[in-house]
Every structure is written in structure tokens, then in C-alpha cells.
Write a structure and sequence with these properties.
InterPro entries: PBSX_Proteobac (IPR030935), Phage/GTA_portal (IPR006944), Phage_portal_PBSX (IPR006430)
Number of strands: 8
Shape: elongated
Organism: Novosphingobium mathurense
Pfam family, one: Phage_portal
Largest sheet: 3 strands, antiparallel
Structural class: alpha+beta
Protein name: Phage portal protein, PBSX family
Strand order of the largest sheet: 2-1-6
Radius of gyration: 32 Å
Helix content: 25-40%
Family: Belongs to the phage portal family. PBSX subfamily.
């Protein structure tokens, strides 16, 4: 039998590489080298993490599957996102007929929590006889569902938790397909679009604030005197910051035609991408909220417009506001009396 192959050490590998054939397209020795790189991509997509999260508990209350603080901060990420939620809240609050136990202000807070966070909580305030005097809105951002049925906790911060009296807090939740402890808002599929809309606006603001508008490559191949290249480099550096948009004069007596080329790399593309991102993300957000664009004051791009606003209002009320009213009417079953009552609405188109 022959001897077993032995792995070479580093010194032997280096000696063996000397004189080895080199590929004809190997450009490692050239003066110019171009390459691209990016951030490492996770093997597990973040979008699928939500499907695997559970509502873990600390033996007292359950934690929500999504950060309530993150959803609250994303509420004002996009003007179309917050405006659509505020429109639904105002229309629901205007359709409410206040009762001795529930005021319009308390109801508006519940509606906003339900639309933004997917959960709404109301607390019974009872008199000494045990009767319900009024209903108090509990912020869904800090309210947690207890492990024991009928128990809820108020958790505004670390070591500031407080348990509500049992059977005094009622929860309304938007159904979720992965768990039944907490509700999730319906717009989660368009949340990334709302955040992208915000990022595009912030990027454009920083683009104008920092004064770095020189998105180009200055390509020079002509013959220049000593110090000319350094002078051009200093002039380009001074074109940034306050007082930018200056004109640049270059004199090359012995230069050739097209010896200096200015190649823009970002200016025109950034304008087109900005408008495209803003319009596309706006459509995604409006589709998730199912709000007609004319109700949000969006200017139509075509001469025909969006159609009759009164008909759009009637359709929106029937398809969106009326189903939301039925969600809050479920509170009457939990309370045992009629605390939520809506007035009948006449169609605007009639």
C-alpha cells in the first residue's frame, strides 16, 4: 500500500505557490480595482420571526408578541398611516351616542389604541354598592393580560407594575392567527412601507441639510501643470457645506477635449427614486387601511380625480366604520348593560 497523503504546512504551501500558473483574467496586479460589498443578510428573515414568537409570561402577566412601544412610535412614521387612523377614530367617535358610563373622550382613546396597537382596554369604576359609575380608558401600551383569567396588570415601567382589581378590566383585541392572548393591528403588512416612506423623507432632509450635493465622479485624463490637481481637489472640498452650489473654473492650456469629465452618479436617480418610493409606499399604506385617497386630502395626479367624495364616504363608512362599531358593541356583552351605543347615520349621497 502507498503512503497516506500528508497535508502541507504554511511554509510548504507558500513555496508551492511560487511559479504556479496564473489565470489570464487575474487583475490583482493592476492599478485600479473595483468591488462591491454589503451588509451580511440573516439566514432567517425578520418578517418570519413574528410567526414563531409566543406570548411568554413571567408567572404574573403575558408579554405581547410585538413591541407595543415600537408600534406606538411607528404611529407617526408616515403621514398617510397616522392620518388614516385618525380619520377612523374621528368618524367612530362622532358616531357614538354618549352614555352615563362612557364618554366620547374615553371612547376615542379606546378606538385609537385598538387601531394602533390592536388592543383596547376599559376599566370599571364602581361605587360602594358595586354598581358601575363610569368606564375608564386604560392605555394599551402599558396594560398586560394576567396569567390568571380575569386579571390584568398595569406595567408603565420597570418595578412599577400594579395589578388591577380582578374582573374590572375588559379587553377588545383584533384577532391574530398565531395566538389568542393579544391582538395585532391590521396594518402590520404595510408597516415596512410606512417606515420606508419615513426613511426616504429623512434621507432627503439630511441630503439638503448637510450640503453634500456633489454626487458625481470627476474624471480627468488631460495633462495638468504641477499643483493643478491639488487646486481642483481643494476647490471641490470647499463646494460642500454652507455656501455650496459654487461654480468651478478649470483652465488647462495644454489639455485635450474631454480631458475632464463630470459624471453624475446619484443626483438624477435620487430624484426619481424619491418620488417613486413616496408614491409606492403611500399606496401600500392606504391599501392596508382601506381608506379612499380623497378622504385624506391627497391631490390626484390625473385630471379626472378620484370621483365623488360623498359616495366614497358612504362606502368607507359601510365597509370600515360599521364593522369597527360592531367590535366595540361587544363590550356591552362583557359589561352586562348598554354602555356603547351608536346613532344611526344617514348616507351623505342621499
Amino acid at each position: 500500500m502507498g503512503k497516506r497523503a500528508r497535508r502541507m504546512n504554511r511554509r510548504e504551501s507558500a513555496e508551492a505557490s511560487n511559479g504556479a500558473p496564473v489565470a489570464s483574467n487575474d487583475n490583482r496586479g493592476s492599478a485600479i480595482e473595483a468591488f462591491t460589498f454589503g451588509d451580511p443578510e440573516p439566514v432567517l428573515n425578520r418578517a418570519s420571526m413574528l410567526d414563531m414568537l409566543e406570548c411568554w409570561h413571567n408567572r404574573r402577566w403575558y408579554e405581547p408578541p410585538v413591541s407595543m412601544d415600537g408600534l406606538a412610535r411607528a404611529f407617526r412614521a408616515s403621514p398617510h398611516h397616522s392620518s388614516a387612523i385618525i380619520l377612523k377614530r374621528n368618524m367612530l367617535a362622532a358616531s357614538l351616542e354618549p352614555t352615563p358610563q362612557l364618554s366620547r373622550r374615553t371612547f376615542a382613546g379606546m378606538v385609537q389604541d385598538y387601531l394602533v396597537l390592536g388592543n383596547a382596554y376599559v376599566r370599571e369604576i364602581r361605587n360602594r354598592l358595586g354598581d358601575v359609575m363610569r368606564l375608564e380608558h386604560c392605555l394599551a401600551k402599558y396594560t398586560r393580560r394576567g396569567v390568571e383569567p380575569g386579571h390584568f396588570w398595569w406595567v408603565p415601567g420597570y418595578q412599577q407594575e400594579e395589578e388591577f382589581a380582578p374582573a374590572t378590566v375588559h379587553q377588545l383585541l383584533a384577532p391574530d392567527i398565531n395566538q389568542e392572548i393579544y391582538g395585532l393591528p391590521e396594518y402590520l403588512s404595510a408597516l415596512q412601507s410606512a417606515l420606508l416612506n419615513e426613511n426616504a423623507t429623512l434621507f432627503r432632509r439630511r441630503y439638503y441639510e448637510n450640503g453634500s450635493h456633489a454626487g458625481y465622479i470627476l474624471y480627468a485624463t488631460g495633462a495638468f501643470a504641477n499643483g493643478d490637481v491639488d487646486a481642483m481637489r481643494d476647490a471641490l472640498k470647499k463646494s460642500k457645506g454652507p455656501g455650496n452650489f459654487r461654480n468651478l473654473f478649470v483652465h488647462a492650456p495644454d489639455g485635450k477635449e474631454a480631458g475632464i469629465k463630470l459624471i453624475p452618479i446619484a443626483e438624477v436617480a435620487a430624484k426619481d427614486e424619491f418620488l417613486g418610493i413616496k408614491n409606492t409606499t403611500r399606496d401600500d399604506v392606504l391599501a392596508a387601511h382601506r381608506v379612499p385617497p380623497q378622504l385624506l386630502g391627497i391631490v390626484p395626479a390625473n385630471a379626472g380625480g378620484f370621483g365623488d367624495v360623498t359616495k366614497a364616504t358612504d362606502a368607507f363608512f359601510e365597509l370600515e366604520i360599521a364593522p369597527l362599531q360592531s367590535v366595540f358593541l361587544e363590550l356591552n356583552d362583557a359589561l352586562g348593560f348598554e354602555a356603547v351605543r351608536f346613532r344611526e347615520r344617514a348616507k351623505a349621497a342621499d
